[in-house]
Amino acid sequence: MVIRDALAGHDLLVPSPTGSGRTLAFGIPLVDLIDPRERDPQALVLAPTRELAGQIVDELSALAKARRLRIAVVDGGVGFGPQIKAAGRADILVATPGRLEDLVGRGAVALGRVKVLVLDEADRMLDMGFRPAVDRIVGQTPDDRQTFFFSATLEGAAGDAARAYTHKARSHTHAPKEKALDVEHRFIRVESQPAKLDALVATIEGEEPGRALVFVRTKRGADRLVKRLSKEGVDAVAMHGDKSQRQRENALARFERGDVMTLVATDVAARGIDVPDVMRVINYDAPEDRATYVHRVGRTGRAGRTGTGISFVLSDEVGEMRKIAKALNLDFGLARTESAAPRTQPRHEGEKPAAESREGESRQGGSQKQSRGGGQKSGRGGKSGKPRRDGGKPRGGHGHAEKRQGDDRPQADGPRSKRRRRRKRSNKPAITVEH
Question: What is the domain extent for residue 408?
Fold first, then answer.
């Protein structure tokens, strides 16, 4: 769709979903538009993440070699030395905005000869807060450059940037817009956050064996989920922005080789993941919007393969997920978690796994061992607790470990009890809040 206009010298605006062949769409004309005999980078490709930058280099390397062009990547996570040397000789430079600004500031890279500027996944770049950096980088390229703007959407901030960076651009939209790809879509109702883990384990163990990509919203949540899966006997690795470049590459390599069949990732880290045989994508945490849903589920069913997108939906997420499904013309028939393979010993809501409870005991210095010792001693010194001002039960003995009638949640000796003991030892008056 775009090669003819690209070779004719036009700027391009291309709304296109993941998996639609963007890299070759700009890469094929790109290698034909630059001259291997000139110095300094003549083509600059900006990408939001290291993974996507690496994927672009991998896909363009064969094209560049055929035209005797040199290609280099400039991204974070590695030392400056090798990148500075490679960038100085490159005809095509693929870069993330932050690291490129560092090299430009050091005088190691000059952008005055750039003929073609490509912004890939521009909407994600802006979402990540790179607009000021991209503005400064674009400002250092020639005004008569040719610009290719590829983005999942041209609405809002992405549309504003597209108009600022291009001139009389030709637009080519990959139709249908935001198509949810040819995969099976399943929505599973879960009653609580703790129930998600049971549903995830049941899904991984109950489905046909294959690679599963699990999406969460936060970096800390990714690490936490990997630990919990490990305690449930599921081997998984995490991939997010706080990992070093080497850690991220190792995690992805293990997933690609099949050493680990479950990869837990955040949305930003997953940009650029192109593992063709991912059998299922699991939205452990709900996507923020339909574009995020399409991006996530687009990691499966690639290159004509089949795949499955599975979304866990909490009660307060039903409305938003229904809107996403409706916008993508998907059947939003909510299945219940009971339809998944049942666990032999399902946990109650709020209850910790046995291994996690053991960790908690060690952190509390054995206080729970005292509470299990027969109920004759209190949490400290064996003294019985004084009646509380609110008329509740005494604080000694099993007061903290017992369950309240009608409440299935264990009442553990938690942070509030620790704070009360600290205030008592320091002779500071406790603060009472009237409700």
Answer: 354-425
